[in-house]
Amino acid sequence: MQNVELPSNIGSIQILDAPWLPSARYVVINLDMLRIVTTLLFILLTLLIVYIARNRRKIALKLGVFYAVLMLITLVAVRIAQTVTTNQVDPKYQTAAGDAYQAVLSPFVVQTSWLLALGVIVAFIAWIIGPGKNATKVRKSFNSLRAKVTRK
């Protein structure tokens, strides 16, 4: 029942005693900002690692592959956790539980997908500019293709 006036002789009713609630509310309100700040810090620290490394191309390649694999594992883990969680819910509420899970984790999944793509791009660029035999063949193929296109 909502909007029901209590008689004055009842006093006050306390539904929940949660001293941690203001802290939890603060975290929830600032969660998006925290996500953005940690992502920027992640990228900046990665750039710093590459900048101070002796062999920048090699460390960029290793970090790109490592981050891509790590983000892929994270996406798979999120999907498994969603499936396990929703399967434990009463069948008539599973769709709602899945939708709620999706709504809460959607920004995280998008961010993780972008970081996975960025890791793949960085690893590919670091590999393609390297001295490897296969990378050299790919570069030559791109150059010959570019030459054919510019002649036309």
List keywords for this structure.
single chain; 5 helices; mainly alpha
Structure commentary:
The protein is an all-alpha fold. Helix content is about 75%, strand content about 0%. It has five helices and no strands. It has helices at about 20-30, 30-50, 55-85, 95-130, 135-150. Helix 2 runs antiparallel to helix 3. The model has no long low-confidence stretch (mean pLDDT about 85).
> How many E strands?
0
Derived from helix and strand composition plus strand pairing, the structural class reads mainly alpha
Please tally the helical runs, counting DSSP H or I stretches of 4 or more residues: 5
Major sheet size, sense and barrel closure:
none
Tell me the series of helices and strands, N- to C-terminal. Answer: HHHHH
Unreliable stretches (pLDDT < 50, length at least 5) are none
Q: Please, what is the average pLDDT?
A: 86
Gyration radius from CA atoms, angstroms: 26 Å
N- to C-terminal distance: 77 Å
Q: Percent of residues in helical segments?
A: over 70%
Name the beta content range: under 5%
What overall geometry do the principal axes of the alpha carbons give?
A: elongated
